[in-house]
Specification:
Layout lengths: L3 E9 L6 E6 L2 E4 L1 E6 L2 E6 L3 H20 L8 H9 L14 H10 L1 H6 L1 E3 L2 E3 L3 E3 L3 E2 L23 E9 L13 E9 L4 E8 L4 H16 L14 E5 L6 H21 L1
Length: 269
């Protein structure tokens, strides 16, 4: 079984916040993992592979509807959940038998499910794509979480900062002459100019999956955002990947199979 790894680099054009569960006081912190560097434990922020996977899934879903001429309002909620969120196992709804027919039809008919996988009823359709974490290129990560380099690198602590937004207390009931309270909310960010190492890995030698990934990367490049508050200008990036992939087979597949795709999406609901 052939595997293809596609290494890339993400360079932040604006500050980025990708939050985890950790807070310092009331300040949301970046999602981070502890790394051992030269015998010292270091906190390293990163963008989770799951977040990137979710971003690609949503981009491919909306592109699928557009290319196949499917009205987004007519898509059943269950089908949306399967394709946009990956679905959920429904083990209590059946005797445990596996419907190979529907699983194979979804895999053979809907490219984004073939690439990224999903859950349908009581069965899991495994995808062909592994999505790596995006990790800042810094002294503490070079040679461990990212490829080694002889280039001079900053320590991870110099790659982060803080931003803030203001919110008005519009929900609380107030007296007629009482003004709304304006609150300042700070959050940790990766700074503009930070470069992150990232990779995709295709587990199967599958032309359609490779071409679907090419389309996903192209769509992401056309809207290169991730993380929180992207609608306010945060999380904009420049994306570079080492392989030149071709989305031609994917686009041709959608043209030839758009009726079958639309029919199956309706059936999934």
């Amino acid at each position: 079984m052939a595997k293809k790894r596609i290494n890339g680099k993400l360079r932040l054009l604006t500050a980025l916040h990708h939050g985890g569960d950790e807070k310092t006081g009331s300040t949301p912190m970046l999602r981070a993992i502890d790394v051992i560097h030269n015998g010292t434990r270091v906190r390293v922020p990163y963008i989770s592979g799951n977040a990137i996977r979710g971003r690609l899934r949503r981009l491919l879903y909306h592109d699928l509807l557009e290319q196949c001429g499917i009205d987004a309002k007519a898509v059943p909620k269950k089908a949306i959940h399967i394709l946009v969120s990956g679905g959920v196992l429904e083990l209590g709804k059946s005797s445990g038998s596996i419907d190979l027919n529907i699983r194979n039809r979804v895999r053979d008919t809907i490219p984004l499910a073939r690439l990224l996988g999903c859950s349908i009823g009581n069965q899991i359709l495994s995808g062909s794509l592994i999505v790596g974490h995006a990790v800042p290129i810094a002294r503490e990560t070079a040679g461990t979480m990212v490829p080694a380099t002889d280039a001079p690198l900053l320590p991870i602590r110099e790659l982060t900062g803080s931003e803030f937004i203001t919110r008005r207390d519009e929900v609380r009931e107030r007296e007629e002459d009482e003004a709304a309270v304006q609150m300042k909310v700070e959050f940790e960010v990766l700074l503009p100019g930070v470069e992150l190492f990232h990779y995709f890995q295709l587990e199967d030698d599958d032309v359609l999956c490779e071409s679907t990934l090419a389309r996903a990367i192209s769509l992401w490049k056309s809207s290169p955002y991730i993380g929180g508050r992207s609608s306010s200008g945060f999380g904009e990036m420049h994306l570079e990947y080492a392989h030149e992939l071709n989305d031609g087979p994917y686009m041709e597949f959608l043209v030839k199979n758009k009726d079958a795709i639309a029919s199956l999406i309706e059936e999934l609901g």
